[in-house]
Amino acid sequence: MTLGSIDAWWWPYLFIVLAGWAMTYPWRALGVYLGGRIREDSEILVLVRAIATALVAAVIGNLVCLPSGPAAETTLALRVFSAAMGFAAYFFIARKVLIGIVVAEAIFGLGFYFGY
Amino acid sequence: MQMPDDTVLPTPGFAERCRWFLRGASNVASVPGLILCTAHIGFADLAQQAGITMAQAVFMVGIIWALPGMVVFVGAVLSGVGLLATAFAVALSSVRLTPMVVSLVPELRGSRTRKLTLYLLAHFIAITSWVIAMETIRGMPREVRTSYYFGLGSILVVTNMIVVAIVFAVAAALPPVVAAGLFLLTPMYFLTSLWGSAREQASHIAMVLGLVLGPLIHMFAPAFDLLGAGLIGGGLAFAAHLIKDRSA
């Protein structure tokens, strides 16, 4: 059974509910259940925050290393170098998100223009 | 432990709650809010290519509300796999939501917050609003944090449903330079704000490990890249935290 396999207007929506909502919301509900049992100053929260942070960082790493669309045409070296320079600007010049974005985009744009 | 902000505050009135709702809603018009919109422009572009209709894509944004899960969903539709395989892939990519919710809930709830309120608000928890909330919520009175987060989360969802509808209505593919440039916005925003919102050094270590482990595990076991990177990276960072505590 695929998204287009039943020819009825409601089928794609049911498919989205079953394969989308029913696969995401329970993880959130589990989080509320477990989070309600943990004290704010608990040591276990350090572990949970570390896992959550590593997960989001993995999303970032995958976005940079394995992009989809036109960005996939650029070299891995250019993408990693742009992101690293953007983060360095954020770290050493000023702790502002915009600085990191502007520096990374400027380097990436130049590299893209010159065909890297 | 005595929590000073838990004890004497009166229940905020409706007007007070509305003020905090609007304050959360106004945080949607921010750098992270705009970046999430660009990420949804990319998603709408991808969904169009997969033959998903405008109404279906808008429905997905509202009901799934987890961009990595939605991208995985569209990827599965593009490759023509069935319901079970799609569901499995989406479920795996969404396990990450649990630790995010677990770490936010103790800071979100007030002394009289109902369970139902938290279960409803949990729907809005995804990377962007999680990072914004982790950065800002500690400076707010405890009893109004749920109102603030409701404003932030719900308006963020509605705004991006509108963004996706607009992209479908315009129905033009993005020029390659623009699409390529857009791609870097999301990782740069997460990279810098995740570093800035980290509570302790363990999170900084976890972040560096996750950045490397995500793509590395993806080469060997793509289905488990996020989960594996989270558990290994987070676990090692926590071990470093414990060792440092003991030697201090």
Secondary structure class of chain A reads: mainly alpha
Q: Per the principal axes of the C-alpha atoms, what is the gross shape of chain A?
A: flat
Instruction: Give the helix level of chain B as a range of percent.
Output: over 70%
- The tally of beta strands of chain B, per DSSP, is 0
Write down the overall mean pLDDT of chain B. Answer: 87
Distance N to C terminus of chain A: 42 Å
Order of secondary-structure elements of chain A: HHHH
Global morphology of chain B:
globular
Order of helices and strands of chain B: HHHHHHHHHHHHH
Rg of chain B, alpha carbons? 19 Å
- Domain module tally of chain A: 2
Biggest sheet details of chain A: none
Domain module tally of chain B: 2
**Count the helices of chain B. How many?**
13
Describe this structure in words.
- The complex is a heterodimer of chains A (116) and B (248).
- Chain A has two domains: 1-37, no CATH class; 41-113, no CATH class.
- With 116 residues, chain A is mostly helical.
- The model of chain A has no long low-confidence stretch (mean pLDDT 90).
- The relative contact order of chain A is 0.06.
- Chain A has four helices and no strands.
- In chain A, α3 runs antiparallel to α4 (97-113).
- Helices cover 70% and strands 0% of the residues of chain A.
- Chain B is an all-alpha fold and 248 residues long.
- Chain B has two domains: 14-197, no CATH class; 199-248.
- Chain B contains 13 helices and no strands.
- Chain B has helices at residues 4-7, 14-26, 31-49, 54-64, 67-78, 83-94, 97-108, 115-121, 127-136, 145-170, 176-197, 201-220, 225-247.
- In chain B, α2 packs across α10 and α3 (31-49) packs across α11 (176-197).
- Chains A and B meet through α1, α2, α3 and α4 of A and α3, α4, α5, α6 and α7 of B.
